[in-house]
Amino acid sequence: MDENNVDTEQKVSLERLEHMSAEQHVEGVLESLTVRKPGSLEDLQACIQQLDAELAARTDCRLVVIDSIAAPVRRSDLPTAHSAALLMHVAQNLKRLAHEWNLAVILINQVGGTEGAALGTSWHHCVTTRIQLELLDDGKRKATVVKSNEMQRGTTKEFRITNRGIEMGEE
Questions:
Q1: Percentage with pLDDT > 70 across the chain
Q2: Which listed residue, 45, 89, 109, 115, has the most CB atoms within 10 A of its CB?
Q3: What is the C-alpha separation between 95 and 117, in angstroms, rounded?
Q4: What are the residues facing 161 on neighbouring strands?
Q5: What backbone phi and psi angles, to 5 degrees, belong to 101?
Q6: Is the model's pTM score more than 0.85?
Q7: How far apart are CA 115 and CA 122, in angstroms?
């Protein structure tokens, strides 16, 4: 399975991915990964538009990850209304790509203090499925379904991130 990763935070660690794939005895992980680092909201929009042609050439791609969707908006000096319009256009294109190419699209959106999701109410209503990730006191993490048409709201699963990757908690 190929993956397209759009790293707007400029933090993806290829060394970490290589280490995890070696721990799992999985070959060719980095060869099937494409990473892009758009610096602005306009660059992100152009990146998403380029995916169509790339997906036609790489029909085995099943995952697109954007980490983070909020970063280009934070760095933007565009008027708020223009940034919001560009962001909604990006969302529409990602939904279309997911449907046309049978992709999973994961978007990371930080939460800022008590204000909630960094991109606000419009973005909140735009997403199809929302999973909240939390760091627990004991080093475990918890994923909670907050919004979904496929899973019951409130469903949780604990996990750890280890040298081998993600390890699920006991049932």
A1: 85
A2: 109
A3: 20
A4: 166
A5: -110, 5
A6: no
A7: 14
